[in-house]
Amino acid sequence: MLRTNRVDDAITSGRTAVNAWVTMESTYVAEILSYAGFDAVTIDAQHGMFGRDAIMAMLQAVSAGQASPFVRSPSQDPREIGWLLDAGAYGMIIPDVATREQAEIVSRACFYPPAGTRSLGPTRGTLYAGATYYQDADKVIQVWPQIESKEGYDNMEDIMSTPGLYGVFVGPNDLALSMGLKAGGTMPQQIVDMVHTILERSHAHGLKMAIYCADADEARYWAAEGADLVNPSSDSGLLLTGGREQVAHILGDKAPDRTGEPKAY
Description:
Layout: H1 6-12, E1 17-22, H2 27-35, E2 40-44, H3 52-64, E3 68-72, H4 78-86, E4 91-94, H5 100-109, H6 123-129, H7 133-136, E5 142-147, H8 150-154, H9 156-160, E6 167-170, H10 172-178, H11 189-204, E7 208-213, H12 216-225, E8 229-232, H13 235-251
Helix pairs in contact: 2-3, 4-5
């Protein structure tokens, strides 16, 4: 029996899916987050502090819990995407997709012929998903190109019309940088307005919309606005913010002043 994708299970049940984001090389962290109630745990192979050798072990750790295993690919290379799917990823988040041509390439990389160009060799994918994975993979694999640049925003109608996409994933920090705006922390109003437009247009195309958020409050806002999947910060962000909040709570007005100190994304 084919294992279902919990993100799709959540969304089709009528609620927003919640995703966790792993940037640290730790199977234990990935496993803990998979048991924490998230619908998916994304291994960030683009900006994560680990190499390719760690990815499969981290996907195995996610699989030990209830969440579905997702990966943000380090690139748009179809061979890299295929390997990550073979390793058991159920969702592929593809960075900086800015044109219809790029969207078509990455979408086709996720599916076997005739729908796509993926090479046959699902190795661990079959172990995780079930014996019918090869025949039924297109029912569970989700393709999420990231709209995270002004060019991608301008081309979103073409990107969203690409066959095979499950949704689009907004990267607000890189989108802000591409607009010459401040990234990190509270979203500039111009980016908020642009995200609302992406949300409306993705739904008009019959697609889902996901967004990386600075924290749980921002994620709650976008969930209320109709986002289909929200991501409240990352493992490093949760650890740093949570640790600072505990110190501040314990020490009160004697807590160290953290103004201007580094933050985790």
